[in-house]
From TrEMBL:
Catalyzes the cleavage of L-kynurenine (L-Kyn) and L-3-hydroxykynurenine (L-3OHKyn) into anthranilic acid (AA) and 3-hydroxyanthranilic acid (3-OHAA), respectively. PANTHER family: KYNURENINASE (PTHR14084:SF0). Pathway: Amino-acid degradation; L-kynurenine degradation; L-alanine and anthranilate from L-kynurenine: step 1/1; Cofactor biosynthesis; NAD(+) biosynthesis; quinolinate from L-kynurenine: step 2/3. This is Kynureninase. GO terms for biological process: 'de novo' NAD+ biosynthetic process from L-tryptophan; anthranilate metabolic process; L-kynurenine catabolic process; L-tryptophan catabolic process to kynurenine; quinolinate biosynthetic process. InterPro entries: Kynureninase (IPR010111), PyrdxlP-dep_Trfase (IPR015424), PyrdxlP-dep_Trfase_major (IPR015421), PyrdxlP-dep_Trfase_small (IPR015422). Homodimer. Its cofactor is pyridoxal 5'-phosphate. It comes from the Eukaryota. Keywords: Cytoplasm, Hydrolase, Pyridine nucleotide biosynthesis, Pyridoxal phosphate.
Amino acid sequence: MLVDHGRHDSSTPSPDSTRLDIADPLRSIRTLFSIPAPVYLCGNSLGPQPLSVRTALQTHLDKWASLGVAGHFTTPDPWADIEVAAAAAVAPIVGAKPGEVAIMNSLTVNLHLMLTAFYRPHGDRKCIIIEDGAFSTDEYALQTHITARGLDPASVIVRLQPRTGERLLRDQDILSTISDLSAASRLALVLLPGVQYYTGQLFPLAEACRVAREAGVPIGFDLAHAVGNIPLSLHKWGANFAVWCSYKYLNAGPGAVGGVFIHEKHAAEDLPRHAGWWGHDRTSRFLMPRDFIPQRGAPGFQLSNPPVFAIVPVIEAARVFERAGGMEAVRRKSVKLTAFLERLIEKKLGGAVEIVSPRDEHRRGAQLSLAVERVRRWEGGDMHAFNARLEKRGVVCDVREPDVLRVAPAPLYNSFADVELFVDVLAHALGELPPCK
């Protein structure tokens, strides 16, 4: 349970943070959220609730109560079309045309569907590139999908690794691996994150698309930590596909419906797929024909009718980004927030923590990953117990083993004063630790 002990006496907002907050053009957007803690820096795990979600859900609950099945076709917001409205709302956030987006399923389900469509091993071209230390669901999906194809994951998956002594991947190493494996006629697919979940590193997405396209290899992205975090131009870049969840920076709620992007260049292709009735041509869907006729583009990969009460929060969350002026405006503040956080860490914490994330603010998203070795060396080495010290002072971030705090100041609802208070609380908590043995 979070306890709000307010600010420490030494943590009154400084003139710097006050000046930045006054000048912030997005400062009023914060009022559109119900924020569950005085300093909530955990939007990389679960974003807070947009206030409009409760009202919108109640509207649809009332509609269900009064209309029943007729709600599927009764305006406004007929349920039979609600996923179309969701795709239109999210498309600008990912830099896509509405017909290239489908709001459906979860990220992992969508990744399996995209692997079916775009992983086409033949001859020696079997390899899939991912980053070492990818989020576990990507590993599980790839390994089981490869096994189901009768192949050996150990010989198929090529993991990008940092150079010896480094924590981060170099852009040139990512791009050269794509080129080299393709030139050796071994590469079948590239799957990269938009932003790496552990380090916060922003990957060279546009350049990777260019190199993959020149190599004639399909490329897809896991955008779980990128959607609502960084500007994306999936259509312009020419990515073949992308998948994402909606509960992190998009703020659509726990377990919110995910999304998929398929470039319009594939719209007329008869891609391999697992089909369901909601992906069938809209004009004859309710005629229940025996043979499947897919909708063009991403909507043709839909399986079942949309879960209305899970999609409504996605629409409401996307509207907040529109009110904020779009992703470019969000990103401008994000860069300033992480730069301010970095400066305060260097000023107030010195060598007590190591910033794992890229030091160039343009090569990271909204997250700074902080390695706190002193906690690991402290008797017990329990990062979760240390994080509990922060929570007792009203600060919420999260822990990744063995010694990393992930801190994500989100520009829609975090202030520069939030960032300053976090650093003060962190310094205070570190000062409470007993001496290292």
